[in-house]
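Quick one before lunch.
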Amino acid sequence: MKNRMATIFDQIFESKKADVDQLKASLPIDELRKMVKDAPSCRDFKAALAERECAVIAEVKFRSPSKGQLRTDLDPVFIAECYEENGASAISVLTDRNFFGGEKLYLNIIRRAVGLPLLRKDFILDPWQIYESRMLGADAILLIVAMLEENQLKEYLELTGTLGLAALVEVHDREELERALAAGAEIIGINNRNLKTFVTDLNTSLELSEAVPRDRIVVAESGIRTWEDIQRLMSAGISAFLIGETLMTAPDIGQKLRELLGKEVPAS
Ligand SMILES: O=C(O)c1ccccc1NCC(=O)[C@H](O)[C@H](O)COP(=O)(O)O
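Model of the LARABZUK complex:
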């Protein structure tokens, strides 16, 4: 990982690396590579974002490092169906168990229940996980610039494309954005969450999106709570939004999603 001040990513990196090392020992990458050949084709994540004026990637996320447990009724399929019925463009599925209460199995069961493209939200440190994502039923993966060296980012982006997956390349600041653009990222996620304080600030997306060429898709990530937030981001030309906590903590998930899409006025 690149040299910088310690953040939550350092803890996640150590834990993830230990998991991946164990997995690689039990299933060598060459075996996994052979298995991928029989995987069904991917749903088009990028097109799903591009075709709407306001595209929400709705996240299935039961726990977070910043807020702890978000929801106790753990029914990922019910939540995904609710997202699809109420206008989501894609679904983000947390598969990290240790920090986010996710499961890899969720990708498989959600894929069988809905027709939307699925983003595997995890911490990718090794090509093994990219092949694994394809096997698990993901249509797109998250590549976090802060967790990857320059050559890794390029290599992983290339492999992602070769396997038919899309990549959401996540940045937190100007320097990471430049690295993402130089690596050829087509979908740039701008994360509004400060990794040291966990405070979210939509100005991060507003400011950094100005430096993204118009032929790339910008996804504003984290801390989006209202239709007004979305309108503010849309006025800066952003048209895709990754939303977890606001949906997962809502008493009526479907209603909250319709509100975020401007299809329903919030109850006062
Ligand atoms: O969600 C967290 O607390 C968190 C902490 C540290 C690293 C990453 C974290 N979240 C990952 C995400 O990118 C969010 O799940 C995603 O952008 C949705 O954010 P939100 O709508 O604020 O749940």
